[in-house]
Amino acid sequence: MREMIPKLYIVIPCYNEEEILEESLNILTGKLARLVSDGKVDKDSRVVCVDDGSGDSTWDIIARRSSSDNKILGLKFSRNYGHQNAILAGMLESRHIADCVVTIDADLQQDIEAIDDFIAKYMEGCDVVYGIRNDRDTDKAGKKFTAEGFYKLMKLLGADVIPNSADYRLLSKKALNALSDYPESNLFLRGLIPTMGFRSGVVYFDVKDRTGGQSKYTVKKMLSLALNGITSMSTRPLELIVVLGFLFCILALIIFVLSMIDWARGMVVQGWTTTVALLCLIGGMNLLTNGLVGLYVGKAYIEIKHRPRYIIDQAIWDGLADDVETATDRMGD
User: Fold this and answer.
1) Is 119 in contact with 35 (CB distance < 8 Å)?
2) Which among 74, 144, 165, 244 would be 20 to 30 A from 98, CA to CA?
3) Are strands 165-172 and 100-103 parallel, antiparallel or unpaired?
4) Which residues of the chain have pLDDT under 50?
């Protein structure tokens, strides 16, 4: 159990959110004020906006709102580094000051009233609190099917992923400090955070329809996230390749024996169709497996470069604009 009222930082990744950001900030600052007045969070709690290289006026909105409201802080990437890195940057830069951090999408489709439950779980002693969707009724049929299939596939491949979890979660300072020790560039936070093993809790929330703008998670980005999650959290696909190769070797041996029998009986032409079909199948599997191995090699190649996961171009922290020269852990040093 925790007794001290926590200093909460709410992190929202932003990418071309000019249509909804003003309203989202109004809602979040209002929610923060209610949490403060109810004695659930400290008066120095803040909202942190991370501009992931937007091409519209997103940063201008953040800068303007920050100048008039010290409850709003801002980080601006030098270019687009992706949703996962935007979340990570907001969390890591906040950990020096905040007692706990809640991450939520800029469109606020996740029910913000669940933040009270996140805080309650934190006060009970949880260092990680996962937000879990009650249902996927607001998803289109295609997205619902692929999302459910993805979580099942991740479980099958041995990755410890919470089904129907989202990037709506709370992490304590202790959990954030531990997360900062993970150096990998290929980020999949939904799979990475459960590996830390801290005491955790679950909060269920409803998802609302988007009130403005369009979702930035295109099919391409969702597939990229899924592929990154599978290849960064599990080596099971490589193990399956070995098993598949062994099975094909046995199959090839059986086909060879049958072919020799056909040859001895003068029935060479009879197996032509089967042979061609198997050659096509084996050729396709070769390409697929080689490509999968290539993905892992490519990710290892990126990791050993040790390039920064993101570069912060500008920061507005406690109302002071600052040019940030380093990639990570600049704030609060």
Assistant:
1) yes
2) 165
3) antiparallel
4) 319-321, 323-333
